[in-house]
Amino acid sequence: MEFDTRLKSPEADDLFDAIMKIDNLEDCYRFFEDLCTVKEIRAMAQRFAVARLLLQKKTYSEIEETTGASTATISRINRTLQFGADGYQRVLEKKNGKD
């Protein structure tokens, strides 16, 4: 079953397919450094860290202290975890070897 998303396009398919072909951390850094600004990468990394901590049931204050994320960002990611596409959970499960 294919996931229905507003992001779907041939260009997005091509981008995500290219990302899935990256097989080492150095190439990943190189690709994303060319693709994104440093600020964008840091923001994505922070969101991912916030999602991980929320799934570990950490408090907003603990997450704010650990990541530097604002409570607004933490709240937005919490809503995504509750009502989003389950992307964070699926990737974290795979990263943690539960797949």
What this model shows, in words?
Helices cover 72% and strands 0% of the residues. The chain is mainly α. The protein has a single domain (10-95), classed as Orthogonal Bundle (Trp Operon Repressor, Chain A), CATH 1.10.1270.10.
Could you say what the CATH architecture is? Answer: Orthogonal Bundle
The biggest beta sheet is recorded as: none
User: Helix/strand/pairing class, anyone?
Assistant: mainly alpha
Share of helix among residues?
Answer: over 70%
CATH topology: Trp Operon Repressor, Chain A
Contiguous uncertain segments of 5+ residues: none
What is the count of DSSP helices, taking H or I runs of 4+ residues? Answer: 6
What is the average of the pLDDT values? 94
Span of the ends, CA to CA: 18 Å
The total tally of domains equals 1
Based on DSSP secondary structure assignment, what is the total number of beta strands?
Answer: 0
CATH homologous group name: TrpR-like
Assigned CATH class: Mainly Alpha
Tertiary shape = globular
In short:
This protein is mainly α.
Entry keywords:
99 residues, Trp Operon Repressor, Chain A, mainly alpha, single chain
How does the SSE layout of this entry go?
Elements: H1 10-21, H2 25-35, H3 38-55, H4 60-67, H5 71-83, H6 87-95
